[in-house]
Amino acid sequence: MAKGQKSSATSGTRKKNARKATQGSVAPQPSPPPKQSRPKGANHKLSKREAREQHKKVYIPPIKPAPPVLDPLDTTGLAHLLPPELVVVLRALGKKDAVTRGKAIEELGKWVEDAIKEQAARDSGHDRYEEESGKTDMIVKMLPVWLHRSLVLFTHPERRLRHLAASLHSTLLRLNEAREALLAWTSEIASQSELETLLGTWAMLSYDVDRGVAMVGMRSWVDFVTTARGQAADKQDEQCTGPQTRRTRSQPKMTLNPRPLISLFRFAQDTVLDPQGLHTALNPAPVLPPAVSPPQQGHKSVPQGKSESVAENDSDRAGRLRVGALGVIRWILGTSDLPLFCSRRDFFSSCPVRFYVYCWFSIDAAYSDNWPEVDSASATDLAVLTALLSSLPFWSTLHPAAVLLRKLPATLIRILSTVVLRSAWVETDIGVRATLGAPLMIFLRDYSQAWTIDMENASKGYDDLDANDKDTESDDSDSNSGAESETDSESEGNGDDDDFTGVSTESPPNGQLLSEAYTEFLQFLELGCSGSPPEGYPLVVVVLAGIPKSILPTTLPPVSPLGPGDKEENEQASNIHPISQLLTSFWAPLDAGLLDRRTVASSWLKAFSECLVLIVRRGVHAENTTHVKDDAKNLLASQFSRLWTELVTKRLRVEETEVAAVIVRTADRIGKIGDDLFDASFDALCQPILDALHTTDGTLDLAPVLFYHFTSTFALGTHAGQKIRGAVEAYMRRVTEVLETVLRSSDQVLIANAAKDPLTALVKLMDTFGPSLFDDQSFTSCTDAIFVAHSLSLVQVSTSGVLAYLGHRSKSSDQSQGQLQTQVFWTELLGTVASSPTKVALSLLSPLVGASLPIHLRGASPTMDDLTARLVSNVIAGVGLGNEEVAVAKILSAPAPFISFGCLATIASMLSNSVATFVNARLRFAGVSESTTGLDGVPDLPEVGPTVGLVRELADSGYEFTGDLGAELYTNVFLVGYAVPYQGEASGDKWLEDAKALWRLWISQEGDRQREMMDIAGSLVKEKLKSVLVDEKAETRSEYIIQCITPSPPGIRIDPLSDILPSHEEFDTMLDSSSLPSSTTSPSLALLDPTLPTSSDTPTPSVISRKYARTVSALLAHLAASRTVARSNLWALRHILVLGFYANEYLRVEDGLAMFDVTRDHLVDILEKVKSLTTYLLGRVEDGMHAKVVNMLMSKDGVAALEDGSLASFVISVTRRAKNTDSVRIRRCSASCCSTCSVMLQRTMPICAPQTTITILSAITAHAPEPPKLDRYRNELAASLTGVHPGAASTTGLIALRLLAATAPDPDSDVVFLPQQRAVNVMKACQAWVAADEDDEDGVDEDVESAMTLVFFYLAPILQNVPGSHWDFIWDVIENNLESCSLEDSATLTTLGRTLRLVIAIDDLALTNKPLRAKWDERKTTVLGLTKDMIAVNTVAMPYSEPRTLCRQLALSVIQDMPSEMMNEKTLPSMCHLLGDQSPEVQRIGYHLLHNAARKRTEHYVIEAGVDTEDMVTSEIPPELLAILQHSLGSREALDLDEQPVPRNKEVSGYLLAWMITFDLFIDASMKVRSGYFNHMRSPRRYLSIFHPQCIRHPWFVQWWKTGIQIGCLGCRRNSSGDCPPYHRALLTVPALIRSWISDCTDKQLLTRVIDYTSSYFSPGIIKAELAQVRQSGASSELSSTENLTVKVSPASGEVTASYTVDEQTLELSIRMPSDWPLHRLEVRDTKMVGVSGDKWRAWILGVQQVVWQQNGRIVDALTLFTKNVTLHFSGQVECAICYSYALVSPPWLVAVA
Spans of biased composition, class Polar residues (predicted)? Predict the structure, then answer.
């Protein structure tokens, strides 16, 4: 039935259904006396005529509507006083539309907010608001209008309007003027009815069904209204709070006196009784003619003038209004002092009986139909119930039971008794149940006769309750028509008959009267308190205590024990005796599974025990006879027996302690009734406990707890105490006997299975009773004997049993005897366990070593010592199992109970030796990552983990390592924790944390002996670290050693300079040693640094050189981390500079000195640190230091250098060393320190230190301004060359040339190197040396020629306009150098590089100098040829050399514009290796060269193929280029060039450039040559994929082609999408290769992405280019020269149509390209075919497709082939017998294969 609709059934039918719903499965009810039936016809039905006569239609005049309430806007003239805008808003408040009302409330709220802002501004002192306070006055004036409209808005059916109205009303009260006006209106203006209506609706708003609305309404109600009690409380609060709070609460309020309170109470009472009347009064309807159509069924009539926007039926509205009214009543009764100010008699006499009846009937689901205005299906019944029950406690508190009983009419008590009792047990809502408990108990306490009254009502069939409904029934019957009246009469008659069918009217056999409420109470118990056991069961005892004997007799059921299996007897007993029926109802929830939760079961158990005691006490006290006691014993025995059964079977789940407490408390109360009753109850529990020892049930856990509570509750001297003591002793005896019997068996399987239960019982007994259990001597002796004799079996069965025995036996009253006995047992147990197999012993020891043992136990078993030592040895050796390591660790964490002290010392020695062995073997590889190195024969880091873990367990247990053993162990543990591991990989390993934890533990210990041990360990640590640092064979990086001790680890102080690193003198000795090279490691480095000599004396790397590199690297790491130390030790700067010098050379030339065993990244890091530290130390120059240094160096008396540690003393020392030892290494150091020295200083050094002078001059020229004396010095050097004899050219002349080159300025500067004449003289001197060299074998050598070439580079610009033989001499030197130098020879790279630079300089000068260009062109071809031959040498396999790369780059710059005549078809293969160079500049220039070489090679093949008539010429891609294309690039991750090193980037860029060169080969190639190239690429042996198989899976694979901007710098065109050209070139050149990859691709997602990208960015341009090529074909092409041929191009559809006309007949062929061309096949359609056979035409079509699809041809090529076939066919030529073609574009063998 839909909500809100009235049932069509009559009231009799509704009452019948209600009674059936409440009966359930309880005992039948007595039927009420039969009603006198109305006269009926023969068929027991009324005829239509009789029905019409009986139900005569009577005219009922309509109710006169209430007079409409006038609007104050019109009656008071406010419409003319208020602003029009506000009048409009106020008018809208009275509209019917809810949306209009809502907007009006919001607009009015804005007016109020503005008024409040004005009030705040006035309070803050703004003067402008004193005159302009119009809105506040307007709000005060319009207040009557709002009060008139608010009554309807407060009760409006739409929740939003109520909320807005409550908010606006609360905001109004914030306006002081409005509050004062409202107070004045309530006290002076308002009438009694107006005030009652306003306060009533306002109070109801505060208790609205919607919580949000109620909160807002309550806030305004509390803020404005108070009572006398509330006013006193407010005053008290004001005295206790601060001024701010007092200001807040100082607002005036309306105090409700008794008179308005009574009025408010009656308003709420009337609303509860007649909510429709309140609604009609607030919403009066205009007088309208009656409606034609009747109202809908289920709805009461709505005032016709009222049309609400929300659909709310009458029942919902009535429920909502009643909830608010009941809330008001609760507030009045709970928070006011109304009963203190008025007569109680007057107050309660004013409440009609109908009000109370309605309150209870409205919440009773079974009797809601008895009240005509209540719908039981209303959604607000629950809220009504909660509000009503909340008021009952205050009712009962304020009015004693006697007063209420006298004052309440008997009729009301009679009705309420039945309704309360019956509604209390059928309510299922949890919230209602929780609220109902207290009022129900108070009601039953105050009206104890309620059960009797209900029984009397039940005997009468509850007819009296129907009396109030008769009028309603008659009204309902009269309102129906004739047919409906007949049907209702029939239904009512049948309903009445059904109500009493099958109900016995006889009294029960024992004379008790049945009560419907009691039956529902039993059903309440059967349902587990209707779903609320925690709230319901505590009330059961109170309810039972109040049930009269007439309902629940005191006699006990006869002797018929209720066993759980006797179902028939139980059912019969439940039907015979009420107590049996009550107990059956109590057990019903357990049988139904409703007590599955522990809290529910606990509540049930407590209620059951209390009720059982109550029943027995009432029965025994009523008749204390032997027969009655026998019945009580049997009842107790049966109930306790079943209770125990349910507990042990776990059907009733309650905590053991709680169960025992409840049972013992129940037994105690039963014992107070009689000892014999206690014996019966206890025997019912004790006998199953003793019998359970032979079974496997849950009694073993519960019995000891129960016995313990019994012994703790009952004294030993009482009857109960004696009985309990005997039972406990019997139980203990039975447990030990059963356990001993089982352990004596020889069957181990039987022992393991059968001994578990008795041993568990014994353990539970010991845990429950504690050590006091062993006060019994017989039990103690028996238990000791069992444990000593069967120790192994007991520990195998249950370790907890052994631990419980050890714990409780050692704490017995005789403690010494207990500890002695447990030590004997423990020693026996360890011996038997250790004698077992290892796996068995470990499994048995595992739970023991981790358990809490008595502190007096000691390990005294030799067998156990041997087992432990053997396990430790296995763990150290790494051969032990995982459980062995765990067991040993647990034993060593608490060794005292398991092993002896001697065994412990042996184990400590084994562990120390193991750690020492590991450290000695692994320290040389400290910090080396195991993932990057293969260390054969070296122990792995994790191997020491178990040993360190055992050491930590032993140390944590309190064991002290002393003597040499301790010092060595401390040292090794420190090295394991802080020096050995590789940082980053082992930082999270447990063994590392164990080692550090051990070290922290040891340093935290105090004492002289401990400090002495730590000092010894510190010395040993320093000694070992220093030995590793200077060990040239160690793999450990020296920087890592410094990192380990910086900052110093805890507990040890290490100064690297004094403790680890060599001393100052030792560093100087190693530096001055002959094992270190004094010059450069490679002569080619002179090309990069002109100050270096071109010769080298590189020695073989020695031990000292590697040792020096390691120690200086460590020194650099230490000083870089501590710059303060670096400033105080400037002597170390010289060694750091030398280290940087060697590292820089090794980075530039890898084939030099191999004194470093680190990677290039580490060398780069070293250089960065050297630069940073050097800049820091040399950048802080004191004032006057420069002059001081120069003066001391130029002094003739040779004053010794300063030794004050300052920067000046360091510079002087380094410079004097350079003068005394003129080595490259020393002068590099001096160059770094003396770059600002004057020219005067260096002029004193040429004779003794030329290298140093060259270095200083270069530094001055490069970094300092041009000194005035430098030009003079430069001219002096040039003049001195003319006086050098040719024989001294290799000595004096070489030095002079190098000095002259060192003084040369930057070529781009304005400084003039030498005058022209001086330059000519220099050239003449060099010519003289070379001329003499031709006659003397010992003349000019390679070093002099290299130096002359360098000087010529600076002289060429000066001599470009000076004619003479010197230019021929320069070109002869160039040609000679190019012939004698090679890229493979590192010794000639310097000369080669200088020569190529000279060639480039001359070529640049020739561009602007015509005479020089004429002479240069004569010699240029020879130079270019020599350079070209030099470039052709492949040096990719040689070690990296920066000078070699520079020479190759210079050579490519020379020949990049080489004439095409100097290239041939072999140039490309000979120079493909340039793409693999590691220099991006070489790749860039090399690509331009190879691009031209590729065109030259293609041109050669085109010419050869054109004249080749026998197909002997095969066009192939060079194998050198194919080798690059077939090179694997690695995984996809390796192609992410942003995260790869530079060499990797160059490798990928070279690979891409190789593809570009391959595509260049196809440029201007004929069809035959193109086919040859492509077939060569597709050869099975050298198949190439245009896509890399790994990189193609990259999400944006085109980015792979765009790698490196150097490709974009090559001059290649970019497509419209901005991508680099390789992929575009591939689509244009070799589309068949792309399509091959498309067909083989299995990744659908990738394939879709490739196709979409290509069709979007590349295909449109390619299609456009193809069509343009067809449209713009030249006049000499086949398509233009063929007659009768017409070609049409359609750019929109991408289609080309060729038409050939023969004898007015047309052959037509159409070719259409797809949108993603060239990824998919083109469509060839034969539109018209005339004069050609089908086979021949299909062959032509196939040829067209193959040209484009298989042979990478263009659309023009396909149309040309078609044109030739058609022309030759109609010319009478003979076609090919295989393919029917007249024109072949492929070799014959390829056609045959096809």
Answer: 1-12, 296-312, 502-512
Give percent of the chain above pLDDT 90: 4
Could you tell me if residue 1528 is left (phi over 0), alpha (psi between -120 and 50 degrees) or otherwise beta?
beta
Which strands sit side by side in the sheet containing 1695-1702, from one edge to the other?
Answer: 1685-1690, 1695-1702, 1705-1712, 1723-1728
1390: left (phi over 0), alpha (psi -120 to 50) or beta: alpha
pLDDT one-digit tens code per residue, 1000-1047: 888 888 888 888 888 888 888 888 888 888 887 777 888 888 888 888
CA–CA gap between residue 604 and residue 612 (Å, rounded): 12
CB-based contacts of 402, cutoff 8 Å, min separation 6: none
DSSP state of 1441: B
Locate 1725 and state its tokens. Answer: 């359609």
Joined tokens for residue 61: 């005049």
CA distance 1629 to 1425: 33
Q: Which distant-in-sequence residues (6+ apart) come within 8 Å of 908 by Cβ?
A: 954, 959, 961, 965
- CA dist 573 and 635 (Å) reads 12
Nearest Cα neighbor of 768 from 862, 859, 820, 703 is 703
> Which two tokens mark 1048?
């110093």
Taking the C-alpha atoms of residue 1785 and residue 1747, their distance in angstroms, rounded to an integer, is 8
First to last CA, the chain: 85
Distance from C-alpha of 530 to C-alpha of 434, rounded to nearest angstrom: 12
Single-letter amino acid, residue 852: S
Beta carbons of 605 and 654 less than 8 angstroms apart: yes
- Write phi, then psi, for 1449 (nearest 5 degrees): -65, -40
- Other Cβ atoms within 10 Å of 193 Cβ, number: 11
Taking the CA atoms of the chain, what radius of gyration do you get in angstroms?
58
CA 1664/CA 1679 separation, integer angstroms: 19
How far apart are alpha carbons 39 and 175 in whole angstroms? 73
pLDDT digits (tens, 9 = 90+) for 1533-1556: 444 444 444 555 667 777 778 888
Retrieve residue 323's tokens.
Answer: 């909830």
CB of 223 within 8 A of CB of 251?
Answer: yes
- Per DSSP, which regions of 253-362 are E strands? 254-256
CA pair distance 350, 334, nearest whole angstrom: 18
Per-residue model confidence as pLDDT tens digits over 1594-1645 = 333 344 344 333 333 333 334 433 344 677 777 888 888 778 777 878 878 8
* Domain edges within the chain: 66-284+312-342, 347-470, 553-713, 730-860, 900-1051, 1463-1657, 1663-1793
Rounded Cα gap, residues 1214 and 1228, in angstroms: 10
* 3-class DSSP assignment, residue 1179: coil
Nearest one of 209, 99, 204 to 154, comparing CA atoms: 204
Tokens in use for 1036?
């450990």
Q: Evaluate whether 154 touches 324 at the Cβ level (below 8 Å).
A: no
Whether 1652 and 1608 have beta carbons less than 8 Å apart is answered as: no
Confidence category of residue 1395, pLDDT binned at 50, 70, 90? very high
| pLDDT at residue 17 in the model | 59
Distance CA 1178, CA 129 (A): 76
Longest dimension (CA), the chain: 167
Interval 770-785: pLDDT, tens: 888 888 888 888 888 8
| CA atoms of 1483 and 1490, how far apart (whole Å) | 10
Burial class (CB in 10 A: 0-12, 13-18, 19+), 1179: exposed
Looking at residue 858, what DSSP letter applies? Answer: -
Residues 707, 390: Cα–Cα separation, whole Å: 46
Region of residue 804 (left: phi > 0; alpha: psi -120 to 50; beta: else): alpha
State the Cα–Cα distance between residues 1698 and 1762, nearest whole angstrom: 9
Instruction: Return the CATH number of the domain spanning residue range 1663-1793.
Output: 3.10.110
Please tell me the distance from the alpha carbon of residue 703 to that of residue 706, in angstroms, as a whole number: 5
